[in-house]
């Protein structure tokens, strides 16, 4: 049986192993995540979901990483999932709906800073070395990951699924020119805005790897067995280059 479908049949075994963790941001937000410790001498991936999504959308990649002995943290961004302080009438987390306009200093922008809080938590509480960390983001999470990587000590590498030139005021044209680590952009040609944005980002930084020969979809919707294998191979290759 093929790997991807095998993993789908065993969610309680493969996806049920990570530990639930929480950490706080400097402004008092409590963020909830799933943590899997790496095997000895293995790297680590932080995964950032898209707008109105939550951490569990990364489950297929979590399973592949765990199978390879890599560690990971996928967390619900502020205003999302279990990190949301409020819910709608139907019980859905809706904190992000009260973030207001995407101005400087807004909650949208603080989502970038929250990545730093995650890294500090991993370093102090879980003894994860910063130099072993990769970042992966989907949609808005991709824009956040790129901005953080351009403004801070860069990760080992950066995977951007369906980034946009502008999601919720988080821009990417300047950051893509400043980032100083290996970058992989993945966008489906059927996802027109993300695809056109990705082509622009590739032109601004020709060193970026860009894949568009993928299943139609936005962000993690592009996941299938082939893409998961390719992503793992890219991560392993960049890890071996350090």
3D architecture notes:
With 242 residues, this protein is an alpha/beta fold. It has a single domain (3-240), classed as Alpha/Beta hydrolase fold, catalytic domain (Rossmann fold), CATH 3.40.50.1820. The chain is 36% helix and 18% strand. The protein contains eight helices and ten strands. The protein has helices spanning 3-9, 11-14, 59-67, 107-125, 140-151, 173-178, 192-204, 225-240; strands at residues 19-24, 30-36, 44-48, 71-75, 133-138, 158-161, 166-167, 170-171, 183-186, 209-211. An eight-stranded mixed beta sheet has the order 1-2-4-3-5-6-9-10, with helices on both faces. The chain has a two-stranded antiparallel sheet with strand order 7-8. Strand 5, helix 5 (140-151) and strand 6 form a beta-alpha-beta unit. Residues 1-16 have low confidence and may be disordered.
- Total count of strands: 10
Shape: globular
What is the count of distinct domains? 1
Portion of residues in beta strands equals 15-25%
CATH superfamily: Alpha/Beta hydrolase fold, catalytic domain
Query: In the CATH hierarchy, what is the class?
Result: Alpha Beta
The neighbouring-strand order within the major sheet is 1-2-4-3-5-6-9-10
Q: Could you give the distance between the termini?
A: 34 Å
Helix percent reads 25-40%
**Average pLDDT taken over every residue:** 93
* N-to-C series of helices and strands: HHEEEHEHEHEEEHEHEH
Q: The biggest beta sheet, please?
A: 8 strands, mixed
Kindly provide the radius of gyration, computed on alpha-carbon positions and rounded to a whole number of angstroms: 17 Å
| CATH topology (level 3) name | Rossmann fold
Question: By helix and strand content, what is the structural category?
Answer: alpha/beta
Counted by DSSP, the helix tally is 8
How does CATH name the architecture?
Answer: 3-Layer(aba) Sandwich
Low-confidence stretches: 1-16
């Amino acid at each position: 049986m093929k790997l991807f479908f095998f993993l789908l049949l065993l969610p309680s075994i493969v996806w049920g192993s990570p530990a639930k963790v929480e950490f706080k941001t400097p402004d008092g937000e409590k963020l909830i995540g799933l943590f899997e410790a790496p095997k000895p001498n293995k790297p680590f991936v932080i995964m950032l979901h898209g707008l109105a999504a939550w951490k569990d959308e990364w489950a297929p990649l979590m399973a592949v990483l765990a199978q390879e002995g890599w560690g990971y943290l996928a967390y619900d961004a502020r205003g999302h999932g279990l990190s949301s302080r409020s819910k709608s009438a139907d019980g859905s987390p809706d904190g992000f709906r009260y973030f207001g306009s995407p101005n400087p200093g807004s909650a949208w922008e603080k989502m970038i800073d929250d990545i730093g809080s995650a890294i500090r938590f991993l370093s102090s509480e879980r003894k994860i070395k910063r130099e072993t960390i990769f970042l992966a983001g989907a949609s808005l999470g991709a824009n956040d990951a790129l901005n953080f990587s351009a403004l801070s000590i860069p990760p080992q590498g950066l995977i951007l699924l369906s980034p946009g030139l502008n999601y919720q005021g988080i821009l990417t044209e300047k950051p893509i020119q400043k980032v100083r680590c290996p970058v992989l952009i993945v966008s489906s040609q059927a996802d027109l805005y993300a695809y056109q944005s990705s082509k622009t980002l590739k032109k601004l930084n020709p060193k970026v790897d860009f894949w568009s020969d993928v299943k139609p979809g936005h962000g993690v919707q592009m996941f299938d067995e082939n893409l998961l294998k390719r992503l793992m191979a890219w991560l392993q290759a960049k890890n071996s280059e350090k």
